[in-house]
């Protein structure tokens, strides 16, 4: 399993999908190259991820908050999430809960699993085989650690906007 972080969230308006972009934690090479894994999600899923990334709280509990409150009351918490498979453009995840010394493994949509894990600051992983099949190389950092300029960031965003779920078809 390879540790990953949510690098960015690109929120689009319907009918275009939004994208959760994962990046392996220690994947940057000396040349500044790294891999990204884009996961297409709907508007509702992107909204939930945005709320999780911003650690936003509302006066009334959202569905993910309700789930986490239920876990807390059952003396459980999110232990970790693994993106464990990809078929075409559909990703699969396992959400692992910890209740005392017991681990409980659940099948979950990646968007839900990631949103829950981010809320609890739980580790995120991707299986090496999924990373190999679903990742795209990208160069963002310059050799020598120079700062990234706005043009490079624009190119990166354009790259992400142009890739499509069909690019994953094996």
UniProtKB/TrEMBL annotation:
Domain of life of the native organism: Bacteria
InterPro entries listed in its UniProt record: BFN_sf, Bi_nuclease_dom
GO molecular function: nuclease activity
Pfam families tied to this protein: BFN_dom
Signal peptide: none
Domain (BFN): residue spans on this chain: 1-138
Name by which UniProt lists this protein: Bifunctional nuclease family protein
Source organism of this protein record: Rubneribacter badeniensis
